[in-house]
Specification:
Elements: H1 3-12, H2 25-30, H3 35-44, H4 50-59, E1 72-80, H5 82-99, E2 111-119, H6 124-138, E3 148-153, E4 156-161, H7 163-183, E5 196-201, H8 208-215, E6 226-234, E7 241-245, E8 264-267, E9 279-284, E10 290-294, E11 298-300, E12 308-314, E13 331-333, E14 336-338, H9 340-354, E15 357-365, H10 370-374, H11 418-433, E16 438-443, H12 447-459, E17 468-470, H13 492-497, H14 521-538, E18 546-551, H15 556-564, H16 571-578, E19 586-592, E20 597-601, H17 618-623
Parallel strand pairs: 15-18, 16-17, 16-18
Antiparallel strand pairs: 1-2, 1-6, 3-4, 4-5, 6-12, 7-8, 7-11, 8-9, 9-10, 13-14, 15-19, 19-20
Helix pairs in contact: 3-4, 5-8, 6-7, 11-12, 14-15
């Protein structure tokens, strides 16, 4: 048991548990559930219905922590509703699309009244009563409208609340905390600092201007009703990352975790060091069970996705008389509910930016290679006694290209598997469907990267028009080369003979002779920064085509961060990050010409996810007794 968790047990183990006689609790007690476990289920589901609590208990039947006495943590937030909330949500989505995720995206729009505090499960109903009683006492003095003033700094963007109105909110928060501390035996601290509604936090400074432009599209005077809402979270997982399952996964081994699409998973970053590549160890929010799961079956979730909403108090204000009319219907933006006036405002901002967009850079990792599937000794599996290549498995390529140094060189410069070729072609076809126009293509000299670029261009139907430029400077960090030497790559002449569409007139910015074994991380980052800048300089700035760069897992961060002006990652962070980049993982940067900068945005196509397919021996599997 972790030290912090042991302290939590010690803190609550001596607390007295009283039996509530609430209408929700009695049916669960009648089913034979112990009182403390029934209370736990009710709290975990927001004390809404008996059915919800019973379903939670069924899902958590194998939860090893079901009998633990650790309480939930609670927070009181003031949240906007109505048109203002819709506009804030639009800002959330558009800011994430244009500038990437920042700290504010972890939680919905809110003003903090009381930060997180603990409350025993059997006393949570007292919090509900206190919220209603204090809300009623402030209903007449609550401001008819709340004045919001936009405030911006290099790391924060949000609305500050007028001091007079903020004082009323602070009095409400103090009243709630005082009663909760006295009646529910909770240590509640009201928020007494500057009341604010955060729009963006901990973002990169070069995104400030874009975020401010989007924020100015929000009219803070929009009709709005405010609610004081009580939320809870599991205090054991405060510092964990949260993932959402994209697909169902059925365990193949006893130590693996069963997940359904949509499940939320808690992941402790400190426990991932010794986990096999492509896997994480996590705890299911739905079942409480722990185990290994494939990381590419998940995506990052927001912190508040695992929170539970308990009760809210709606403050009646003058804005309440506003209702939506048929003249202002809801419309869709990017598949989400959206308000037309916000849509027009955001469109105006986007149109200003689109006029300055000139070029895009798509950086991708190569496709699946034979050594990824069959191991480093894959070549030995494919050679006859007289040294000739044969296809030992359908995922091996049907043939290997000729190279003057002999086939042994493929061990350090492996080709794509047949699935890798299919992946690359599929990505190219997806780019074609999205009408992406590639104007230039660059590749690392590694055969796997050359083949990926070739088949992506074939999927785009551009392989006859866009020739591949072999750039040695795009090769991966040489310290990671297992042979401790630079591989003998195929020459341009050998690639042309093997029917690869190579730009024979191109001369790389970094000659092969400049690559040194076991280079330092600083040298690798410097090389990556120099090569991306030279590629951008060499490509015409007048056109709107996309520059395709095919490299390695280690290529994505150094190339794109250098282009967008972001600081370099630590070498240890890079190693952890590369483990998470799948075959054909990609990043996309677009140029803002007027601002003389590049920004990273969503790639034009989704990545490709698929499961493993192990080798099958019918004799050993079907015939053995």
């Amino acid at each position: 048991m972790a030290v912090a968790e042991a302290q939590l047990y010690a803190k609550v183990s001596n607390k007295h548990r009283s039996r509530s006689t609430s209408a929700l609790l009695e049916p669960l007690l009648a089913k034979g559930f112990p009182a403390h476990i029934a209370q736990k289920a009710l709290v975990a589901t927001g004390q809404k219905t008996v059915e919800d609590a019973a379903k939670w208990l069924h899902s958590h039947c194998n939860d090893p922590s079901l009998d633990d006495p650790i309480p939930q943590e609670y927070a009181l937030y003031l949240c906007p509703t109505g048109h203002l909330h819709s506009r804030l949500q639009d800002f959330w989505k558009e800011s994430k699309r244009q500038c990437g995720k920042n700290r504010a995206h972890e939680v919905f729009p809110h003003v903090t009244l009381c930060d997180f505090f603990t409350c025993e499960d059997q006393k949570v109903e007292l919090l509900y009563d206190i919220l209603k009683r204090v809300g009623d006492s402030f209903s007449q003095s609550f401001p008819p409208s709340i004045s919001l003033t936009l405030h911006a700094s290099p790391s924060y963007l949000g609305f500050f609340i007028d001091d007079r109105q903020a004082n009323v909110l602070k009095e409400f928060a103090v009243a709630f905390s005082s009663e909760a501390s006295a009646l529910a035996d909770c240590h509640v601290k009201p928020s007494l600092k500057q009341f604010h509604l955060t729009l963006a936090h901990r973002f990169y400074p070069h995104h400030q201007k874009t975020l401010e432009q989007l924020a100015k599209c929000i009219n803070p005077g929009e009709p709005c009703q405010w609610v004081a809402a009580l939320y809870s979270r599991d205090m054991r997982f405060v510092h964990y990352q949260r993932l959402r399952a994209l697909f169902q996964y059925k365990p193949q081994n006893i130590d693996e975790l069963m997940i359904n699409a949509g499940d939320l998973i808690y992941v402790d970053p400190t426990q991932q060091c010794d986990v096999s590549e492509g896997w994480v160890i996590g705890i299911s929010h739905r079942t409480g069970c722990r185990g290994f799961l494939p990381e590419n079956y998940t995506e990052k979730a927001h912190e508040s996705d695992t929170w539970v909403k308990h009760r809210e108090y709606l403050f009646e204000t003058a804005s309440r008389s506003f209702t939506k009319t048929e003249k202002e219907p809801n419309v869709k933006l990017n598949g989400e509910g959206h308000n037309p006036s916000m849509s027009r405002s955001v469109t105006n901002v986007l149109s200003l930016q689109n006029t300055s967009l000139r070029r895009g850079v798509l950086v991708m990792r190569h496709g699946e290679t034979v050594d990824q599937v069959f191991g480093k000794s894959w070549l030995q599996q494919c050679l006859t006694a007289d040294g000739k290549y044969y296809r030992a498995d359908l995922n091996f390529p049907s043939s290997l290209p000729r190279r003057k140094d002999g086939m042994k060189q493929f061990e350090c410069d492996p080709p794509l598997s047949c699935c890798g070729i299919f992946q690359s072609r599929l990505i190219g076809e997806a780019l074609l469907d999205q009408e992406v126009t590639v104007s230039s293509a660059y590749s690392s000299p590694a055969l796997r990267c050359m083949q990926t670029a070739q088949h992506v261009l074939r999927g785009l139907k551009l392989n006859q028009r866009v020739k591949i430029r072999v750039e040695p400077g795009l090769f991966e960090w040489t310290k990671w080369e297992a042979s401790r030497a630079i591989p003998n790559f195929m020459t341009v002449a050998e690639l042309v003979e093997a029917s690869y569409d190579i730009d024979t007139s191109y001369r790389g910015n970094f000659p092969l002779s400049s690559l040194v074994p076991s280079e330092s991380y600083e040298d690798y980052v410097s090389r990556s920064s120099a090569v991306i800048k030279q590629i951008i300089t060499a490509c015409p700035s007048k056109g709107k085509g996309v520059i395709l760069i095919v490299g390695h897992g280690s290529s994505l961060a150094p190339l794109t961060r250098a282009l967008t002006g972001l600081p370099n990652r630590d070498s240890r962070d890079l190693a952890q990050m590369v483990r998470k980049i799948p075959s054909l993982g990609m990043c996309f940067c677009e140029e803002l010409k007027e601002e003389n900068k590049w920004q990273m945005v969503n790639p034009p196509v989704k990545t490709l996810t698929h499961g493993a397919n192990a080798a099958f021996n019918w004799r050993n599997t079907i015939m053995e007794d």
